[in-house]
Amino acid sequence: MMDNRINNHPVLSVDEKSDFITFNFNGKKITAKSGEMISSALFANGIHVFGHHHKDNSPQGIYCANGQCSQCLVLANGIPVKSCIVPVEKNMDVRSLEGLPELLKDDEIVKKGMKTPVINTRVLIIGGGPAGLSAAIELGLMDVKCIICDDKQDLGGKLSLQTHNFFGSIRDCFAGSRGMDIGYNLTSKVKKDENLEIWTDSPVVGVFVDGLIGVVKNGRYVLVKPDIILITTGAREKTLAFPGCDLPGVYGAGAFQTLVNRDLIKPTEKLFIIGGGNVGIIAAYHALQAGIDVIGLVEALPNCGGYKVHLDKIKRMGIPIYTSHTVLKAIGKNHLEKVVITRIDDKFKPIKGTEKNFEADTLLIAVGLSPVDELKKQAEVFGLKTYAAGDADIIAEASAAMFSGKIIARKILIDMGFNVEIPPEWNQMVEILRSRPGPTKKTNHSIPKDKEIYTVMHCYQEIPCNPCTETCVLQSIKIKDKSIMGTPNFEGKCLGCGRCVSLCPGLAITLVDKKYDYSKKTARIMIPWEMPKNSIKVNQILSTTDIEGNIIGEGKVIAIKTSEWQNKRQLVSIEIPYKDTDKVVNIRIKKAVIENIPKSCEILDDKNIIICRCERVTKKEIVDYIKNTGTKDFNAVKAALRVGMGACGGKTCTELVMRIFRELGVDLKDVEVNVERPFTQEIPIKSFLNDGDNK
Questions:
Q1: Residue ranges covered by each domain of the chain
Q2: What are the start-end ranges of the H helices in 507-653?
Q3: What's the confidence (pLDDT) of residue 441?
Q4: Which pTM does this prediction carry?
Q5: Could you tell me which residue, 591 or 285, shows the higher pLDDT?
Q6: pLDDT band at residue 585, thresholds of 50, 70 and 90?
């Protein structure tokens, strides 16, 4: 078996002290890190196909790596489990799920029932991500007893996957710090507060009319009776349906970041990405940091919706961006082998003759997020005192989720009768953090003409961010009206310290030194660098690029500076022609991608496009049923075709089915939506039963 672990990362520390264990997969002994998820251990050993579906023998692998879908089912010691959320154990017997699992024999089932305990608390916080942790800290300060439930083994939510520096305000939401560090700091504060009881590995699975909340706490079903419920369950990824979308190797950006940034596993050699929002763009950057070749990124809209500074930094690295394009199909037998893209018109229809194909072994889908709000809806129907914060309320950046958690906590305290207030500037700040990027300037006029040492701000779009203004000891970097929503300007003197270069979340600041060469033939610029160690070396000649990745000329690496205050970011000094000082923004190390234009591309239909992954229901089956019956009821489709009746409970396919209704001209307001009932996810029978340890 091969070892696909990452041993060289510019930000993450490679753990060389982990205990390794062995377990069996389909009768073969393989090695894993103790405690890592089964799916991660399989990927580390080059195994991407975990089994085959009982309906059509299609290969199955991971999709969400977050416990939301059921693509990664395996048998672990005879029990069907989602391999992405079950830790591997020494000598565990893991087998592919070929067909349907056999039911356990009567003598293997514990028959004695267990009285379900009921636990009271003032506030139940469902979700231990940025919003939930921030709210818990605020409530704990007022000695409010809370239980925090999270379905993962560790708190932090998606913060633990974010290796990049955050935008926003330094003082209000840790801007300039890396997401994983923010998660660690918030978690540490929560763990120190005795008012906050933490239940990890404890998914909340149902809300009931009597105000009781079902929780599977460490494998045992319990009921919680809270005075107040706070939903901070975050978001799940949206998906797309196209031929081959169900192949192993096609999965969500969150799954990719889980493998790479949490588990330090290199899951791919050649990566292609769908989606030009922040999630897709950041995933591309994270891939480069892990030494993965990013073949390209497609975006259906004429412009990418992510922050321009995020987009610019992957353009500078040489990643091709195809706007007004989409993926036509994914090709492969048991795993993805090729991706075919096409240009689309203003109605998002493919333009014949514009197809290109690329060899790729992984295709990431990053086309937006939907709130995980099933529990919130249930609680509201039953009239329970319920609040929501973060993505479960409004989809936005993690910085906004943290701030909304603080605000909602204050609202809860006020409703409890505490003498606290919500400062007006808090509401203003959260609206700014949730706002879309503002207009983009064509140029930045802050380049000084009379100075020899200065910074150039390559930040042309209005986004909420202020680390550069806060870190400059001379206060020479300013944003108009002292807002964090604007573009920064350099005005004044520069010490040449490079702190702003090191802290800028967008890697959008360069430091110019024209005193480097008094003959004015060359100059020195300092750029930020976050690629793997030894990806560049002193005295190396490299191509230099402008803000959007266009080649300007060549530069020579003359120094690479590393220190603790740079927070794992290197500062690279480059000697360049004097005339290029204000144009050069970065260097390129990635080779150009070769596009292949197919001679022909067959007309595609809906026949083999999988919509429901669990039950393997195609788009054509759903379209035909809706057309033939005239139904506007999701539940009728569900009853007839089993759409949404698989192990994921419709979490992956519901939105796709609603999209089909819309494509067929049905107003979604007229569609009877899918009825969701407890339990919101699968629960092993043994969670309700006494195994002899409970009396």
A1: 20-100+239-365, 118-235+372-433, 453-588, 607-695
A2: 619-629, 634-641
A3: 80
A4: 0.93
A5: 285
A6: very high
